[in-house]
Design goal:
This protein is α/β, with parallel strands linked by helices and 190 residues long. It has a single domain, classed as P-loop containing nucleotide triphosphate hydrolases (Rossmann fold, 3-Layer(aba) Sandwich), CATH 3.40.50.300. Helices cover 59% and strands 14% of the residues. It has 9 helices and 5 strands, in the order E-H-E-H-H-H-E-H-E-H-H-H-E-H. The chain has a 5-stranded parallel β-sheet, with helices on both faces. Bound molecules: adenosine monophosphate. The site of adenosine monophosphate has 17 residues, from helix 2 and helix 3. The site of adenosine monophosphate (AMP) has 17 residues, from helix 2 and helix 3.
Length: 190
């Protein structure tokens, strides 16, 4: 089983590139943001707790996310590959993922880090907000999400560089061009 983390700031193209990876490689996709939005829609306990964090652009606490991920992961046992999208977002989540995968006899094979500068991210997210209807795609929340990314999530790059599995990918250009870079990095890790 190939385990791919797709990593980057909000708006860096993780969702778009994940869709193309699913199509080409037949991998399963775990997006913690999508799981949380479904929990909110179904008004579960977790959904109710997550709602305020998401509206503010803050991260949902690690223990809740790690538990949620462990449950989803067990439903993907027979996959030929899994894409982790939007997870991990903190060092404790990165450590928890390594542990969870090791317990299942596998590991993170590659971390695709989509590099896009803040001005472009802001621009993309404002545009997405006009069509997505997402409660957190508004100027104020986007600013907080970018701050959270730089403060809490980007240190994971160093974490993965030290493990020798970070593939830094230029996240600008056409979707197809970016996907070519993504495919090369996946093919190199398999
Ligand atoms: P996303 O769809 O990945 O941009 O996630 C939307 C929001 O869900 C984030 O701004 C966080 O509030 C929450 N969220 C998603 N994934 C995580 C995670 N791994 N850890 C903590 N919060 C998360």
């Amino acid at each position: 089983m190939t385990n791919v983390v797709i990593f980057g700031a909000p708006g860096s193209g993780k969702g778009t590139q994940s869709e193309l990876i699913i199509k080409k490689y037949g991998f399963d996709h775990i997006s913690t943001g999508d799981v949380l939005r479904a929990e909110m829609k179904n008004e579960t306990e977790l959904g109710k707790i997550a709602k305020d964090y998401i509206a503010k652009g803050a991260l949902v606490p690690d223990d809740l996310i790690i538990n949620m991920l462990a449950n989803v992961l067990d439903s993907k046992k027979n996959s030929k590959g899994v894409i982790f999208d939007g997870f991990p977002r903190t060092i404790p989540q990165g450590e928890a993922l390594n542990k969870m995968l090791a317990e299942r006899g596998c590991k993170v094979d590659v971390v695709l880090s989509l590099e896009v500068d803040d001005a472009e991210l802001m621009d993309r997210l404002i545009k997405r907000g006009q069509i997505s209807g997402r409660s957190d795609d508004n100027a104020e929340t986007i600013k907080s999400r970018l701050e959270v990314y730089h403060g809490q999530t980007s240190p994971l790059k160093q974490f993965y560089i030290e493990q020798g599995i970070l593939a830094s990918i230029k996240g600008t250009g056409s979707i197809e061009e970016i996907f070519e870079r993504v495919s090369k990095a996946i093919d190199a890790c398999k």
